[in-house]
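Fill in residues.
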């Protein structure tokens, strides 16, 4: 009997050990994690998969997200290792939540613009592909879909859905050290919104993207580029369009006085106001911002009507506005390699 009991205890211990080793395996080495709402993957929520990624791992963790609508608020801590998150396609792999800035928390205080985000990306070396990120709260003021402060962030064939403040490239906005890099690259993406729907202090390149001003829209960008930072937001070969009222949308306004926003070879439809840019009722900002265009095309691209303090770049000046040169940085980040 005693031997039988010992064997039984040994079997229980062995099963427990196998389960424990299986769980620990998600915390080590190069791996792929599958998220599926039907329970056929490793996890049923995206946050569970994020929590399983090893802190500081040098090897990339791939998170495959099966088709479905994942209503959850996601945080990727600064300490997480490299992550490549891939959906099946942006139409049927959707991460959504419905927080908004004036919503009250448990203490009765407003969560604020920052707190409203559907996903917070604080880590470096994050890539997302074929996913929709949405704030579904509606037209209820500031409501962020994606917030980034990390560095070397890539979005490939993704959608960003919302209204006011859809995409918050926060960067070093609240840091004493404004030199901390926060580089973001958007390729073949769709971004929609109404007011300041691309904003923040980060450096970002939008290449071959569609930027869509919805009905009632007013401003596309509100950069808060730190003083001395070489680049803010740069749109390259993108479409700046929408269904907002004709001549109702500004290309940008300065959230902070050294805002930088440039459009290179972009198509602009009739939603764009002839003057192009707004000073946010800050006349002094006209001396410190840098707003520029090169070879804008379409009914919203009348260079002769732009405000006098904006810039029409020469062919020579526009040469530095390539994704590679803007995002390279002191670490020689190769975005093409990241996209492979």
């Amino acid at each position: 009997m005693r031997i039988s009991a010992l064997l039984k205890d040994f079997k229980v211990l062995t099963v427990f050990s196998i389960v424990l080793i299986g769980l620990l395996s998600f915390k080590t080495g190069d791996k792929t994690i599958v998220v599926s709402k039907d329970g056929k993957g490793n996890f049923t929520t995206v946050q569970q998969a994020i929590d399983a990624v090893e802190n500081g791992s040098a090897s990339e963790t791939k998170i495959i997200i099966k088709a479905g609508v994942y209503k959850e608020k996601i945080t990727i801590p600064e300490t997480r290792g490299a992550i490549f998150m891939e959906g099946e396609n942006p139409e049927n792999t959707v991460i959504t939540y419905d927080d908004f800035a004036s919503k009250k928390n448990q203490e009765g205080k407003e969560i604020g613009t920052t707190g409203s985000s559907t996903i917070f990306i604080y880590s470096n070396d994050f890539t997302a592909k074929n996913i929709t990120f949405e704030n579904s709260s509606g037209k209820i003021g500031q409501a962020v879909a994606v917030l980034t402060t990390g560095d070397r962030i890539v979005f490939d064939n993704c959608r960003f859905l919302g209204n006011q403040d859809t995409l918050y490239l926060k960067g070093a906005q609240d840091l004493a050290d404004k030199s901390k890099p926060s580089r973001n690259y958007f390729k073949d993406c769709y971004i929609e919104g109404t007011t300041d729907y691309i904003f923040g202090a980060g450096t970002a390149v939008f290449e071959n993207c569609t930027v869509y001003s919805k009905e009632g829209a007013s401003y596309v960008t509100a950069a808060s580029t730190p003083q001395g930072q070489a680049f803010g937001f740069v749109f390259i070969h993108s479409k700046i369009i929408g269904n907002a009222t004709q001549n109702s949308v500004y290309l940008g306004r300065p959230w902070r006085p050294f805002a930088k926003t440039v459009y290179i070879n972009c198509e602009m439809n009739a939603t764009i106001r002839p003057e192009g840019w707004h000073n946010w009722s800050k006349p002094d900002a006209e001396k410190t911002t840098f707003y520029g265009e090169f070879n804008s095309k379409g009914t919203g691209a009348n260079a002769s009507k732009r405000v006098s303090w904006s810039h029409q770049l020469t062919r020579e000046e526009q040469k530095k506005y390539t994704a590679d040169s803007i995002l390279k940085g002191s670490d020689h980040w190769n975005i093409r390699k990241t996209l492979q």
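The first helix runs from residue 2 to 25.
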